[in-house]
Automatic annotation (TrEMBL):
This is Rhamnogalacturonase A/B/Epimerase-like pectate lyase domain-containing protein. Gene3D superfamilies: Single-stranded right-handed beta-helix, Pectin lyase-like (2.160.20.10). It comes from Tetradesmus obliquus. Keywords: Signal. InterPro entries: Pectin_lyas_fold, Pectin_lyase_fold/virulence, RHGA/B-epi-like_pectate_lyase. The keyword Metal-binding does not apply. Residues 95-168 form the Rhamnogalacturonase A/B/Epimerase-like pectate lyase domain. Residues 605-632 have a biased composition (Low complexity). Residues 1-26 form the signal peptide. Residues 605-639 are annotated as: Disordered.
Amino acid sequence: MCRKSILPSSVLLLLLLLLVIRVAVAIPVRTPKTTSPVTVNKTCDQGFSNNRVPIDLWGCQGELWSSKGPLSDWSFAGYGAGMEKIPDLPVTVDVKRDFQAAGDGKEDDTAAVLAALKATREAGGVIYFPPGKYLLTNQLNLTSNQVLRGAGRDATNLFFNTSLQQLHGWGPHYAPGMEKSPYTWAGALISTQKETYIYSGWRMRLAAVAKPAARGERRLYVTDLSNTAVRADEVFASGSWVALRMRETHQAGLAKALCNSRSEVGSTLGQDFGGAAVVTHSSRVLAAGHDWLELERPLHIDVGLEFGPEIFTSQNFKVTGVGVEDLQIEFPWTPYLGHHEEPGYNAIEFESATNSWVRRVRILNADAAIKVYASIFNTISDVQIGTSPKSRKGGRWHGRDHVMQLADQDGHMAIALHWASHDNLVEKFNITGTYHHDLLVAGYSSHNVFSNGSGTDLCLDHHGGAPHNNLWTDIDLGLGQAALRWSGAPGHFPFAGANNTFWSIWASSIPVRPDYAGLLAPGAFNKRMSVQQLRRRATLPMMSRPARLQGFGQLLVDVPVDASYPTIKEAGDWRIYYSPERRAWPANLYSAMRDTQQQRLQLFEQQPAGSTPGSSSSSSSSSKEPGVSSTKRPLQNVARRYCRLLQ
């Protein structure tokens, strides 16, 4: 016989309801709070013409900018933290006069150029290439303060007729269509490959951070000071540069924090970068007290003690003062062999470099034109990247599905800022043809600026590992079909961290349909839209991906995107301002930040000589990083290391 229930059914339902409410309270749902930029009712000076209007993130002269808002400050990007000009140094050696280079495009000039590099390796110097075509068959490895200078990109041509694969082979792991080329990511014909760091890491350490700090704050409380110091003001001098560094956890907690803690991150980030110092915030010291210091630059991210925040003299580096300028780098024309099948016609690679530059350079027929790894305060300016005499598209290659296909790009990368690269400036660029990754940031990289450039169909690629707080401004995408085609290794999701900012981005050649309705309407001559008006109403296509892959917390101002796109709606925290009728002020946010730096920030008034990170006066130490062998690594090992980490 069944026992009758003691409690009435209504009481049971009430208890069940209370249990559901308790569970809902115990597991809160994170709801993003999004405030989209809006125009402000302000009358600004300087004649705001061309239908541009101020918005509430900036105003007219940055008076509405807030260090705790979505906009970081990018005014310190580039060589010398934006406070020093790239030097125009005197010529040290002339490859024709001093080393008998022919420069006729027929005789091999490699020996003469290598001899010039050897002659300037210890003291540095400018290696000058007079007008001519220099045939080169080997890599040129640069060290600190070595500069390659030509007579202009229309006069001096460095012609490399040899790929990295021809120099070093394919290696034991490459198989067409199965395992990617070792030169997809690593190596270049002009590079800064070097085993040892300039400084010993433990000598650079100054203190540990004692308390958490929020984005936008300037004060850090410190403990465990170096050199047995008791007070912070014994260690930190006003005007000196320091670098706050944070380490990834083995559970990739830092990457998750950089995505506003909105999503689980890729499965291999923790194992690849756990324990590594991947985030750097560089600043001068304004003041210091007993247990604190005040920074010139507001923090661009939250500082959590679980990430082991410490303060160093700077991010460590291997070379400083390296330059490539006023010349052309050319490879023989070959069809592009396809994604991850590259033989290594790679032009320039900076690894762990600071205060270095590439300027007034043209690069032709490259698989990868310019790559930067783990580097800070460098400038890439006035570069042209393309093909000659025709496009490289159409090469037959082993596709991922193991069938022969035609390559649909001209190369792999144009300009790429990889893992833990911070405060670099890329400006005045023109990229003709198309690449899988025209402009790329990846792996925790932050505070980098891409400004005042154009291309055929630019991809502004965020390639995984939570690159965050980067700026893209005043850029003509060309066709505009690839801009948001972000990608990366599945284990390094999401593609982008938070607070990447896209400001005044347009597509001058975006496909549009004629305004037939306007043409047929009464009084059509006055009402029909021009092609320019139609293009302002056309939106950039976006790949259909969930927000956990594409990224959270992006800011787009005056960028033609559809805010109702599923990925953006799912994320819920993208800030978007776009109006076909009114463009946002200013046209170039980086230039505006540079112009208003003094009034927006509390700056240190005097600049001690050689105070910027990596300046020549502070790089005389030859101590090497603990645990780093001084033995020369074969390029093949470097390639395997990068290929394991990158996709």
